[in-house]
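tool=predict chain=A
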Amino acid sequence: MNESTGRQCTISGGPASTQAQFADMRSAAGRLEATAGDTGDLRAGVLGIATSLPEKSAILSPGSAVDVAEKIAGLTIALTALGLHMEFVAATLRWSAGVYELTDEVQRQLLAAINVATAPVRLRTDVAKDAVIATLEHPLPPLRSWATYPGELYYNGVAWTRSFTKELDSDLQNDPALVDGALPWVEWGIDALGPDVSRRLNIAAPPDDFEGQIAWLLAAGRSLGYFNDTRPLTVTEVGEHRGRTRKRQLADVVAAAADVEHRSGKDRSVLLVRRVVGSDGEGAWVVVIPGTSHWPLRSDHGPSDTAANLATMAGVKSSLYPAIDKAMAAAMKESGVTPGSEPVMLAGHSQGGIIAARLAIDEDFRARYDVREVVTDGSPIDRMPVPQDVHVLSIENNHDIVPHADGLATPDAMNRVDVTCEPPEGVQLHGVIDAHDASLYARSARALTADSDEILAGWYSRNSGFLNGHETDYEFDLRRP
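tool=predict ok
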């Protein structure tokens, strides 16, 4: 995979993807074939000129006629050879593209298989090492008195658990791909235990695919009274801000995702719908979706929760989908805009990014809105087959395990750009929760400017209509009744 490197972030995919290179090879082969066809036409033209020479020229100047005939014959042979050579090179390019593409895919699958095969060993080694470290730091307390020993043992156990958790947390930060490798083993466990659990809960047996198994977990939880996400949400417009003209950066989009997430909670989810009108009078929409704001097992009023997470990962429409549609339609109606007449960018952190990618795939949503761009940070969206006409930019923290939660490597595609970043200078991570923090992603995104990388320069050029212009912000509260 080709990559370009900025200050603290590595950028891959898009125009630097191997898929783009294979497309360039096939395009070059097509141009060579077309040119070879042109040489054939040119050869025919030369022969036509030869046959049109007056017969009297050979009588008046026999030597010149022989010389002209030889030159025409030589030119014809050269053009024929050139055309054949071009056709051979074109065929070689097409063959090479196919071989390289197959080799690249085999290599990617082999690396993924090695990751899966070694995951149990790596995890077992990490757990054993962390247990030894925690034991050395917090050995069993000496027996001073039977009366005080149970209390000392309890507090020592708490300290041991904290130490062990801290060490394991650090290991996961340093090796987040361990999550990718461990997930197939979890899937195998569900395959093995699922049928028995299904019989006990009276639900369908788990399927073999990843999304189907997440849907099975969701159904199992709902059968026990958890993850209830069947009630339609209320959508209330709570604010409208007009009259600002801005020139924004990618970091502003990421910061907006952090803002709506932090202001969401157990009582509501905050959705931002922004219209940007450029100096040319053309409008564009940026829809910022909040990430997970809380983790209840039993659903409450705030819909950005565990139930929405499971539903979105399973490819099941959560109550957030129609609510977002309703909010967008209301904002467009206030602006006098017909849905589908202006382009849309969907953005979000974590769960918000998952929902953004799902909406970009949803045929009903795409039929209603002109979705052009998706921006995610900290979101596991690698399994989602985003259409080729939708561009995706995904930002991941190198130490964040959440983007690995779908157990698949980042697709190497022309319409998908992946940005992986180290924490900004001076930032110390104290756990995997810190690595996933939306505000940390907003800080990392400050380095992602148009002049920091050629791929990003292309992204900014393509998306100027979403970033630069006169803004009107519509804010909505989404709430379960």
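The radius of gyration is 30 Å. The mean pLDDT is 83.
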